[in-house]
Write a structure and sequence with these properties.
α6 links the parallel β2 and β3. A seven-stranded mixed beta sheet has the order 1-7-6-5-4-2-3, with helices on both faces. α1 crosses α9, α2 packs antiparallel against α4 and α4 runs parallel beside α11. It is of the alpha/beta class. It contains 16 helices and twelve strands. The radius of gyration is 22 Å and the shape is globular. It folds into two domains: 284 residues, 3-Layer(aba) Sandwich (Aspartate Aminotransferase, domain 2); 143 residues, Aspartate Aminotransferase, domain 1. This is Methionine gamma-lyase. InterPro entries: Cys/Met-Metab_PyrdxlP-dep_enz, PyrdxlP-dep_Trfase, PyrdxlP-dep_Trfase_major, PyrdxlP-dep_Trfase_small. Its cofactor is pyridoxal 5'-phosphate. Belongs to the trans-sulfuration enzymes family. It holds the Pfam family Cys_Met_Meta_PP.
Length: 432
């Protein structure tokens, strides 16, 4: 299988070897443009959809060699779409190119990508050090499911406190350092480079969820071993698809696809080929979309702050991680498409969101993010509700924290007018 891992690099990046780079060196859009383009079966500029569950071979001996790992997708040999599918593989190449990794594998959801990686890297009795600020589903997986089902424990720490991270690592037991590049929902920014240096010195694998910052941040180029995505969000962009991705070394992806022990193979988090085709058509304009999401988020955050609102956005100079973000981010992509408004109480948060949706039509009250319309939710009672009140307090999640994923429909000034209308109505009749 080692030989197959080398060939996987050719599959992922079209034969281009992964190169070490510093922040700002590589534009993800340029890397995507260099990725292999798959034409349709009859010469179409778009690839064909390989909707087959199983695949035939010309020689009976080929089946034995395929199951033995001697023949694989690098030579156009496919066994079964739960293992490798040509259309899904093409999307995986693009994800690898975008993140600057040797290989990638696309899955049925972001959570299936996260759980598969953790199952692969950790065994019973082993340990994870993780950020205390995580998506609620990830927190629940680490806090409750893995200890109960797998005897895998997690210590949650303030990821900005490098001494705390170092102290939480148990020699011989801790296998993974897990965090989000931009935390959900607090928008704290991880010092990816320093965290990777610390973890690698202790022999840990660094796993980074980059869902909030595709194109904006490139964790693998900053030292991360594995980069995860919920493709359902910005990469999809239309709130109509559930999907995920694991991006990392070819050896990791191959071992996760092992017929006998690989979690991607045995747990079956399979992406449908038709879904992969849809997503492959959206990735070419992801960079353009991200720039507009980020630009509007910066404008709204700046204007809301001038109105006296308590705004959290890494692009604001008073954000504690502003300079760190500037030192890590890819040029011209901004500071992310999410901002938070701290309304202090859930009642005030709900009233503001009600006005924004039902009075001024600024956006929609819905979880998720990366949609072309603005989506907003009160995180403490929704996407972070898996965390206890004490855990939310430690994570810096106020009961009235409104998370907004800023869309790009309509004109910027049109949407700002709608925001002002909702704020005016809120101030006319504020909660007592």
């Amino acid at each position: 299988m080692a030989e197959s891992a080398v060939r996987m690099e050719d599959i992922a990046l079209g034969g281009e070897k992964k190169k070490k780079s510093t922040p700002h060196d590589v534009d993800p859009a340029a890397a995507l443009a260099l990725a292999r383009h798959e034409f349709g079966e009859h010469g179409g500029v778009n690839m064909s959809i390989e909707a087959s569950a199983t695949f035939t071979v010309m020689e009976p001996e080929s089946l034995r060699r395929m199951f033995a790992g001697e023949l694989g997708p690098d030579g156009d040999f496919f066994i079964y779409s739960r293992h490798f599918n040509p259309t899904v593989l093409n999307l995986s190449r693009h994800m690898a190119a975008m993140e600057g990794t040797e290989a990638a594998y696309c899955t049925s959801s972001g959570m299936s990508a996260i759980s598969s990686v953790l199952f692969h890297l950790c065994s019973s009795g082993e340990h994870v050090v993780a950020s205390r600020v995580l998506y609620g589903g990830t927190h629940a997986l680490l806090m409750h499911f893995l200890p109960r089902v797998c005897n895998i424990s997690t210590t949650f720490v303030d990821i900005a406190d490098l001494e705390a991270v170092d102290s939480a690592i148990v020699e011989g037991k801790t296998k993974v350092l897990y965090f989000e590049s931009v935390a959900n929902p607090s928008l704290k920014v991880a010092n990816i480079s320093k965290l990777c240096c610390l973890a690698h010195a202790k022999g840990l694998t660094v796993v980074v969820d980059n869902t909030f910052a595709p194109m904006v941040l490139s964790p693998a180029r900053l030292g991360a071993d594995v980069v995860l995505h919920s493709i359902s969000k910005f990469i999809s962009g239309a709130a109509d698809i559930i999907a995920g991705a694991v991006c990392g070394p070819a050896s990791l992806v191959n071992s996760m696809m092992d017929l006998h022990q690989g979690p991607l193979m045995l747990l079956g988090p399979t992406m449908n080929a038709k879904v992969a085709f849809e997503l492959s058509e959206r990735i070419p304009h992801l960079g353009l979309r991200m720039k507009e999401h980020c630009q509007r988020a910066l404008v709204f955050a700046t204007r809301l702050k001038k109105l006296g609102m308590k705004v959290i956005y890494p692009g604001l100079e008073d954000h504690p991680d502003h300079e760190l973000f500037k030192s890590l981010c890819n040029r011209e992509y901004g500071y992310g498409g999410l901002l938070c408004i701290d309304m202090e109480t859930e009642e005030r948060a709900n009233l503001l969101m009600n006005h924004l949706q039902n009075y001024s039509q600024f956006g929609f009250m819905a979880v998720s993010l990366g949609y072309y319309e603005t989506l907003m939710s009160c995180s403490g009672s929704s996407t972070s509700s898996e965390m206890s009140e004490e855990e939310q307090k430690l994570a810096g999640i106020s009961p009235g924290l409104v998370r907004m994923s800023i869309g790009y429909t309509g004109t910027l000034e049109q949407k700002w007018t709608q925001m002002e209308m909702a704020l005016a109505r809120f101030h006319e009749n504020p909660p007592i």
